[in-house]
Amino acid sequence: MAFRFKIVPFVAMLVLVVAGIALGRWQDGRAAEKEALAGLLQAGGDTAPLTVGAALVPLHEAQFRRVTVTGSFVANWPVYLDNRPNNGRAGFYVLMPFRIAGTAMHVLVARGWLPRDPADRQRIPAYPTPSGTVTIEGVARPTAGHVMQLGDAPALTPGAIVQNADVAQVSAASGLALQPFVLEQTSSDGSEGGLVRDWPAPDLGVDKHRGYAFQWYALAAMAFLFFIFSGLRRGTSETTK
């Protein structure tokens, strides 16, 4: 069986094969990173809670761990994250600084979820906030999550409804010293009548990256096979003339 070699198809095949393998390996690497992150999440849930005080705790030491902290909520500085659905219902995440007892240090707490008023999206449902010293527990997250920004972001002020807000932005706008993580509250503080703390598990997307890797490897294999088959067909057709 004859094979007809042509330089242009060969170069095209080579480019597709190299690109497919490189991108497939990149997706495999991303999947491995997400699997390592899943391990950190599991390990953080299994360890004893980290008690946070005045000292700044580096993010890498706190993230995904259970954290306990004693202090009081800064009730006049809530921030509401819009476009956070829960069980198919539109709503907000409530972020609120929490002053650590006996210090000037704070932690930004994701207190829970509130439903949005379908008639007036700017109206925030009433919810209780403890006025005294309480001890709360939660899971330290790098952020409170990120959604697509729709339009220009409004100024970050007390009671603002925004798409996204991170720790650094809240600290700069409020003038409060904050630990470098968001505490996703899981414990009771007496506000459960208004706030839902059914936090969704992080979607790490490991299977998605594996699927993308398979598609890139398949593209590389198809490009190589197409080059071989087309070369054989050209060679066969020339020998039969």
What does this structure look like?
The mean pLDDT is 85. 36% of the residues lie in helices and 22% in strands. The protein is built from 4 helices and 8 strands. The longest helix has 40 residues, at 7-46. By secondary structure, the protein is an alpha/beta fold. The chain has helices spanning 7-46, 59-62, 167-174, 206-239; strands at residues 50-51, 66-73, 79-81, 91-100, 105-115, 134-141, 161-162, 177-185. α1 runs antiparallel to α4. The two termini are 14 Å apart.
Task: Provide a compact summary of the structure.
The protein has 241 residues and is α/β, with parallel strands linked by helices.
Walk me through the topology.
Elements: H1 7-46, E1 50-51, H2 59-62, E2 66-73, E3 79-81, E4 91-100, E5 105-115, E6 134-141, E7 161-162, H3 167-174, E8 177-185, H4 206-239
Parallel strand pairs: 1-2, 3-7, 5-8
Antiparallel strand pairs: 2-4, 2-6, 3-4, 4-5, 6-8
Helix pairs in contact: 1-4
User: Which regions contain 5 or more consecutive residues with pLDDT less than 50?
Assistant: none
Broad shape: elongated
Strand order of the largest sheet: 2-4-5-8-6
Fraction of residues in helix: 25-40%
Give the total of beta strands.
8
Profile the largest sheet: 5 strands, mixed, barrel
Alpha-carbon Rg, integer: 26 Å
Name some characteristics of this structure.
elongated, 241 residues, 36% helix, 5-stranded mixed β-barrel, 8 strands, alpha/beta
